[in-house]
Specification:
Structural class: alpha+beta
Radius of gyration: 28 Å
CATH class of the largest domain: Alpha Beta
Helix content: 40-55%
Strand content: 15-25%
Low-confidence stretches: 263-268, 330-339, 417-423
Strand order of the largest sheet: 11-7-6-9-10-1-12
Shape: elongated
Length: about 425
């Protein structure tokens, strides 16, 4: 990725239809100069608080306030180490705050942070908030859910297709705050290509919107429209939880920049074949020494056996030392993006299928709006529907998707619920 590339993003968080307060929080920060970007990159954070009342809301706010400060303030190490330090600092801050007040004890939050820097995309996360990468017709989940279901699946006790059937599928195994120490996962660096789209979200989105639908929407719509449509879709399908989405689209390379090239994933270096030859020679010495001893040639046999045994031990120690150095150097070499395998991959849903569903949802929502007397801007709604139909007739499916999004937005903007105005927030952004 290059500093000159345009980065367009939008963030939206919504209380949903079943909750009274929004315990989600998010922050999106673009590096303000090239030096900061090279060391740390652009930062996007999503946190989903837990604890009831205002406790979860406080935990997620502390996370989104503390993590960026530590991440950009830390000068030592690369982006991955800074990300880990920032999450650890956020965990200590939340835990300390919870320990000061009995009502705040055991408060916690999930936290997923994405940094886009010179080396690629770097991710740090705790909990089940996710980061996806959309590239053409494919969406990759780049984070591992710290949930009971995913842990059971990793241990072979649960099949992926069984997860949706579990009664307690939202039980998470890690979060920031409840404990003094927390295990943190870091991912990447992942290569970043022009037109890649990254999505960071809370489980309020993924509980209602499938990965293939996320891929289609963020691929064909600009970030602001995509984030709004994703939240609306989650709400139209129940809105059972707070929903937070950050959509980040990577712009084209500068005209004078060479196209990105990702080399095949290099295998970890290993010991050379010469070590095997030496082990073979010492092994022959041991066998020969033993044979001479058995044939009563004790002196040369014992000398050869002893020398081979000592040499083999010394050779083993030397080989272990070199192998350890190779592993350490390989683990610490974060200078180049590695094409890390995503945890799961999906294919984008066909646009026509999604358009048909959105059209049906629009009809049902309009009927409800008319029956309940919502204050809808009907001119905007009707114009958007007409443009969507014309675009669909002309087989311009992406344009039709965008216009249907505007129509649904006109209807959803009229939804009136206690506390929604205060709990809903939108943060469009541009460089």
């Amino acid at each position: 990725m290059r500093w000159e590339q345009l980065v367009e993003f939008a963030a939206k968080t919504d209380v949903g239809f079943r909750r009274h307060n929004n315990e989600d929080a998010c922050v999106a920060l673009l590096a303000n100069d090239e030096e900061v970007w090279r060391h740390r990159g652009h930062l996007f954070v999503v946190a989903d608080g837990m604890g009831g009342h205002a406790v979860g809301e406080l935990a997620s706010k502390i996370a989104t306030d503390t993590l960026p400060q530590t991440f950009f303030k830390t000068r030592e190490g690369d982006a991955i180490r800074a990300m880990r330090s920032a999450l650890e600092d956020a965990n200590r801050t939340i835990h300390a705050r919870g320990s000061q007040n009995r009502d705040f004890q055991r408060m916690g939050t999930t936290c997923t942070a994405l940094a886009l820097c010179e080396k690629g995309a770097v991710i740090g996360h705790v909990g089940d908030s996710r980061v996806y990468r959309v590239r053409r017709d494919r969406i990759d989940q780049l984070t591992f859910d710290h949930s009971l279901q995913w842990e059971l699946e990793r241990r072979g006790r649960l099949r992926p297709e069984d997860i949706a059937l579990q009664e307690h599928r939202n039980v998470i195994t890690r979060s920031l705050g409840p404990e003094r120490e927390v295990e943190i996962d870091t991912e990447g660096p992942f290569p970043v290509f022009p037109d890649d789209v990254f999505v960071a979200c809370s489980d309020g989105l993924t509980a209602h919107v499938k990965e293939g639908e996320i891929a289609t929407i963020v691929r064909d719509l600009p970030p602001k429209s995509a984030s709004r449509m994703l939240v609306h879709l989650a709400n139209l399908r129940g809105g059972t939880d707070n929903c937070t989405v950050i959509v980040v689209r990577i712009g084209p390379l500068p005209g004078n920049a060479p196209p990105p090239v990702v080399a095949p994933s290099a295998q970890r270096p290993t010991l050379s074949w010469k070590w095997l030859l030496w082990f073979w020679l010492f092994g022959v010495g041991l066998v020969t020494g033993t044979t001479l001893t058995l044939f009563h040639r004790l002196t040369p046999g014992l000398i050869l056996f002893g020398a081979s045994a000592v040499g083999g031990i010394l050779l083993s120690l030397a080989a272990w030392r070199e192998s350890h150095q190779i592993r350490t150097a390989s683990d610490d070499d974060l200078t180049q993006p590695q094409d890390t395998v995503p945890y799961r991959s999906y294919v984008a849903r066909p646009v026509k299928e999604l358009l048909d569903e959105l059209a049906g949802l629009g009809v049902e929502l309009r009927r409800t709006a008319e029956e309940d007397g919502w204050r809808v801007d009907w001119n905007s709604y009707n114009s958007a529907v007409q443009r969507a139909r014309e675009a669909l007739a002309a087989k311009r499916k992406s344009l039709a998707l965008r216009e249907y999004g505007k129509a649904i937005d006109a209807l959803m903007s009229a939804v009136q619920m206690p506390g929604r105005a205060a709990a809903e927030a939108e943060t469009p952004g541009k460089p």
